[in-house]
């Protein structure tokens, strides 16, 4: 049956970048015969404006049923004074929580044309394509006991790193499944040298690997050494799987390997559905960028690359995802830049829709 895609443009530049994704989706329909059952819904401030909540029950239900959800961005100054319970961000949090999206995927991809944007040397990052899988729903950000209390005459702050083997096994499976659709290599990072949860993490990942994914190459690294290797020679990695805390740090560091926020896609995956594919929410890493909204300045590439991830990981269309990524590479190599991709060199930026049109033209030529 036709795969379903629920599009939630959201606020600020969300609808602007999503309009360019629609052009790309239309192209794959017409030129490649890829049919998607695309529907659209409201999230964030846009949903609040329409019915007083940042995500309606009806949209939540459609998200649960969809093969993939693609979200633009939520939030903006207009909604800053709202009560916490109806803030735009709550719409996104509800999606993540109710879909139980426990694996957060942050690719670090560096297109050759943008290699000079990185804070590292061109050689180190050019052509880089790695994926960090961060456990998102457990670990030290959630573990009990937690809190601040008084012991004797001083205060003590407590958080608990806690992982069950089930939580480790499921995120490990997500990482191994992804690796099979990529470079077939997983590096697991923890601190088994100093943490009990790290010892369990290493054991469970090793067990899941031996029992279910012996075809994938697995290695282990202490997370601190991993951080160093990520800066020294990131191309040694394919998929990195790690816990919530280390993943938070490592994925932000990896983002800096590649340059602009306007280029970074992401995904969050949950448990496999009846059809064997994971529940999935794809979204650019950036927010609603109110400072440039409604001016045609937004870079649509992060959202377009998020759709490419959906094709690869939810629609079994890795070749088409690669085709789309190559089209992005082509327009960048041709010198097209939205404003966020221009340094001091005084070139004229292209608009959001010019960038989208150029990517479609590059697809046509592919
Ligand atoms: P932001 O990511 O929206 O913007 C940070 C800076 O990057 C701004 O200068 C912006 O113009 C620029 N930028 C971001 N995306 C861009 C793109 N595609 N093309 C060109 N330039 C781009 O983060 P900020 O300013 O901290 O937050 C703005 C609003 O977005 C807030 O309401 C925040 O809560 C929300 N937000 C939403 C997220 C989401 O929906 N997942 C994530 C982060 C923030
Ligand atoms: Mg962070």
UniProtKB/TrEMBL annotation:
Q: What is its main location?
A: cytoplasm
Please list the residues that bind Mg(2+).
Answer: 224, 248, 252
Protein location: Cytoplasm
Query: Is Oxidoreductase tagged as a keyword?
Result: yes
Keywords attached to this Swiss-Prot or TrEMBL record, sorted alphabetically, are: Amino-acid biosynthesis, Branched-chain amino acid biosynthesis, Cytoplasm, Leucine biosynthesis, Magnesium, Manganese, Metal-binding, NAD, Oxidoreductase
Provide the binding site for substrate.
96, 106, 134, 224
Q: Give all residue intervals belonging to the Isopropylmalate dehydrogenase-like domain.
A: 4-359
One Pfam family named in its UniProt record: Iso_dh
Annotated residues that bind NAD(+) are located at 76-89, 287-299
Instruction: Please give the pathway this protein is involved in.
Output: Amino-acid biosynthesis; L-leucine biosynthesis; L-leucine from 3-methyl-2-oxobutanoate: step 3/4
Entry keyword annotation includes Oxidoreductase: yes
In terms of InterPro entries, this protein maps to:
IsoCit/isopropylmalate_DH_CS, IsoPropMal-DH-like_dom, Isopropylmalate_DH
What family is this?
Belongs to the isocitrate and isopropylmalate dehydrogenases family. LeuB type 1 subfamily.
User: What is said about its interaction partners and assembly?
Assistant: Homodimer.
- NCBIfam families linked: leuB (TIGR00169)
The name under which this protein is listed is 3-isopropylmalate dehydrogenase
This protein's gene is called leuB
